[in-house]
């Protein structure tokens, strides 16, 4: 039997870290973990690509930017947990349209706080066997 591809979660930043300004390197970890392009990362965290470049040069994210990046990390971690640590399955689920989310991908839906709540609620329903 083949080994299940396990993947690490993205360590969730604390409120104090977000308020102080997350290091811009958090975006690089998130991009690598989600296996997305720079453009996809920019869209899901709501930061224009050119701003991403400036933040990397500055080395720190603004509070609102860090909060959005942390939100996306939470959604990934919830999906990873639901799929028992199987990163491949979690990413596949996050990147495919879901009828319960009006046909949007969960990752795309997570680009707003309300959308991220929808995704987290959906994962909760799935975990409890509630039809979606």
Quick description:
62% of the residues lie in helices and 0% in strands. The mean pLDDT is 92.
Draw up the topology in text:
Elements (H helix, E strand, L loop, with lengths): L14 H6 L4 H10 L3 H8 L3 H10 L4 H20 L4 H9 L10 H4 L3 H15 L5
Helix pairs in contact: 2-5, 5-6, 5-8
Average pLDDT level: 92
Terminal Cα span:
32 Å
Strand count, sense and closure of the main sheet? none
Return the string of H and E elements. Answer: HHHHHHHH
Shape: globular
Helix content: 55-70%
Kindly give the count of domains. Answer: 1
Poorly predicted sequence stretches spanning 5 or more consecutive residues: none
Q: Explain this structure to me?
A:
By secondary structure, the chain is mostly helical. The chain has one domain. It is built from 8 helices and no strands. It has helices at residues 15-20, 25-34, 38-45, 49-58, 63-82, 87-95, 106-109, 113-127. α5 (63-82) packs parallel to α8 (113-127). It is globular and about 45 Å long. The relative contact order is 0.15. The mean pLDDT is 92.
């Amino acid at each position: 039997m083949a080994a299940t591809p396990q993947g690490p979660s993205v360590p969730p930043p604390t409120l104090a870290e977000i308020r102080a300004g997350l290091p811009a390197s958090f975006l690089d970890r998130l991009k690598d973990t989600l296996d997305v392009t720079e453009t996809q990362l920019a869209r899901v965290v709501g930061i224009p690509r050119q701003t991403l470049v400036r933040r990397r040069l500055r080395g720190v994210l603004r509070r609102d930017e860090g909060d959005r990046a942390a939100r996306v990390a939470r959604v990934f971690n919830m999906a990873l947990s639901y799929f028992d640590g199987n990163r491949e399955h979690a990413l596949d689920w996050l990147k495919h349209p879901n009828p319960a989310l009006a046909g949007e991908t969960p990752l795309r839906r997570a680009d707003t706080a309300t959308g991220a709540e929808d995704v987290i609620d959906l994962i909760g329903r799935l975990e409890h066997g509630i039809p979606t």
